[in-house]
Input
Amino acid sequence: MRRSVWWIRPLLAVPAIVTAAVVVAAFTGGPVSVVDGPADPEQVLRGRQLVLEHACSLCHGSFDPGQEGWVAGMMRPDQEFLIGPFRTRPRNLTPDNVTGIGRFSERQIFNALRYGLRPGETADVEITATTPGEGNFPINPKYLAPPMPWPAWRHMSDQDLWAIAAYLKHGVAPVSHKVEDSEGPPDFWASAYTPEEIGTLPAAAFPTAHETEPPAGVDRAQVLRGRQVAIQHDCGGCHGGATNPAADGWLAGITDSSGAFPAAACGPDAGGKPCLWMRPRNLTPDDATGTGRYTDRQIFNALRYGLRPSNATDVEIAADRSNFPMEPDYLGLGMPWVAWRHMPDQDLWALVAYLKHGLRPVTNEVEASDAPPDRWASEYTVEKIGPYPATPFPTTYEVKP
Amino acid sequence: MADRSSGPHTVEVTLTAGRARVSLVPGVETDAYAYNGMVPGPTLEVREGDRLIVHLKNELPEPTTVHWHGLHIPWHADGSPFHPIPPGGQADFDFVIPEGTAGTYWYHPHPHHLTRDQVAKGLFGAIVVRAADDPLPPLTEKLLILTDGRFLPDGSVDLPPLTSPEGRVDFENGWEGDLLFVNGQLTPTIAIRSGEVQRWRVVNASASRVYRLAIPGQRLLHVGSDGGLFERPVDTTEVVLSNSERVELLVRGTGAPGDTAVLQALPYDRYIPQTRPADWEETRTLLTLAYANDPPLEPVTLPATLRPVGPMYTATATVTRVMTLTQGFINGKTMDLARVDQTAALGATEIWTIENLVGMDHPFHLHGYRFQVIDVNGVPVTYRRWEDTVNVPKHETVRIIVRFDDYSGKWMFHCHILDHEVNGMMGVLEVK
Output
């Protein structure tokens, strides 16, 4: 199964050849870490929520905090990414001192999420500028390797980024699991992370040329919140425009086959396994080719339950799932709804409001993604993706601060 | 060089650090820096207990210092960045070589931000401290100072600015050159006789190159490290020598008369993937060992034991510290001469856990005090030895035990990849 490749392509001028797959492998727990300060339990819980809904563990481990491998890093060689000639590898995010992030300060983790700076190669200092050499920003910044979607994560609030750091440092049990270093170019990806490529921080003001003021009667604040959610969750990483609402093709779907990617390792390198292609769709509210043809509820159900809006009933899913489709037609594996579903209702509705009322419609018909005969149902069992809501805190792989 | 001293237990010399025009690369002259006009600088030979007096004249166009690398001497004589000698200035060093410290040491500049360039331009030399009761029989001795260099076509030392792509790679890997020198010479020849045993003292004075030394077809007897001889010889096929480290090797002439052998630098992957050189897997030849045609010598009897290396008991440690090494930082910080990073009590025994959190080796050097390695990744070392530098390989953890004897002061601890050191991968330990 493939996970979390939706943000690779926009970072690179050439189509990325990506191999990735997911299986939660068995491994053993490791030594106890040193905790470097008191942690606020509320902040840690907030951080956990953000880690869940931002899909951290889809690359860095398992799906649910109750599953082995939670944020402990990639477990198998086929979970590597191949970015051009470079192999990049999701690291161990548990607070193990030697193999994880135990020795990095919360500030170093914050700087990684806000500025994309590798914690092992960046000073433990407060950064007050984004120009190299100024305000403690390194003269030669060394960035995290793609596909780490820090250009999206950086748009989160300070408070949220600190909460993620607090959770990883104080809410997760250390696991000794060494992940081999990622490869990369000698400039540590600096040329891939220019404002032209990833947009500005903060993002371009609303509305850009691709956006529109919501009509009267629509809650503007909700639309703006939805825009934040879209940027912070890197929707544009696959659906167009990266994290920059001013970029051409913002959320308008792929325009040629270079934007498509296989759902799992396939082809000659994967024993001749046939490729199922993911084709990120047009999310603008165009009636014929975009989300204009779906109701708000159908889009909500896509984000919360992974149900393909074109083939889903327009009903509120009951808490006991009594009206959940008998043979659900799920979104393809490239779409990380298993993480997005953990967002609170209000954020999902805000995202829906932004897509429907904050974007200008663009006509761009994208061919449907490939799907196996079971419409991915066997990939989305509770055993594989964990329960919704997530297993309560703390699980076996977590600790109370 | 001239010993100006009058007494039998005093060595008094003058060292002048200045510009020199010397031929390092055949066929071209280089504007170098040199001690007394020589690259390497003159070798200082002293005995344990000797008083060494050095008058250092700085005729360079910039500040310098001389650090007596590995010697246990008072802080004011340490030659650290705290005591720069201005251009045209002079400093007088006067200290006693402690008993029990016979071994191979070296001296080099240590001015803040300038060390890499000054060493790369030729400022380095060896110190040999002899014991009155050396356990080894008299053997032919060879001192091998290993350096590497990179030169522009006009012969000048290639030191690109930090802002250039090449400078950036140097910043990452440390400055490495394609030319490998032994005592300033390219692939020199050492004569040996069949059956002869030679005692080699090898110094790694390279800014960043780590040497994995081997003589194909021969085994080596590894008898000493930074701080002198081991308790027993260690028979091995290769020795890794990281920056600023020294080894003593017994090279046994096991070849036949007329044979040749080579001392090689085998590939050693100390690099992060992003800047690993394309040719890192090449084996390089450092020197040729030429066997004389003379008939073999009678075998030399080598002692089974050398000298005691006193144990340091971990139970006596009163303080433990963790030093994390990342790319350019110690404990997340860069060097600030105005800041004291660690404070320790004079006379205290401490255990330092040095954790390398990144994918590049970092040789960790502590000024002023020798130490013993306890374990590497929790695996105890098998024989005791004195060190002043220990290589901490990528993503590994080394524990050392050290006692802050005799001298208070503000001592440096740093990565001895000189590019890392000059860019701040260094801290200050105050012992008081």
